[in-house]
Amino acid sequence: MRFFVWLIRILVLLVLLVLALNNTQDATLNLFLGHVWIAPLILIGFAFFAAGLLAGLLSAAPALFRHKMENGRLKRELKKTRTTVVVPDQQPPLM
Fold first, then answer.
1. pTM
2. pLDDT tops 80 at residue 86
3. Is residue 41 in a domain?
């Protein structure tokens, strides 16, 4: 199964590489306030991919931090529970 997953990954990489190499012509991106960015199409695509990746990581950071704090709290609680000796309140009845 791992072989097929890696085969699919390599095929996707090759398709994206061929598309990138075939789209090297300049593209014009009209920005706000009259600014214009003229760059190869693949560079513009990569810039937007990187911006999306950064936005996704920044939006996930608070949840990851919260989970890390909760994990630390639970580990401390587990360590405390393992070192605590539990003494039963009453003896079980003898038969």
1. 0.59
2. no
3. yes
Tens digits of per-residue pLDDT, 8-25? 999 999 998 898 888 888
Q: Which domain holds residue 74?
A: 20-78
Q: What is the dihedral of CA 55, 58, 63, 65, to 10 degrees?
A: 160
Give Dmax (Cα) for the chain: 92
Q: How many residues does the chain have?
A: 95
Q: Who contacts 41 (Cβ-Cβ below 8 Å, separation ≥6)? A: 23, 24, 25, 26, 27
Is residue 65 one of the residues assigned to a domain?
yes
Question: What does the block give as tokens for 38?
Answer: 């003229």
Query: Does residue 31 lie in a domain region?
Result: yes
Q: Is the pLDDT of residue 95 over 70?
A: no
Count up the domains in the chain and report the number.
Answer: 1
Write the DSSP symbol of residue 9: H
Phi-psi domain of 33 (left: phi exceeds 0; alpha: psi -120 through 50; beta: other): left
- Would residue 11 count as lying in a domain? no
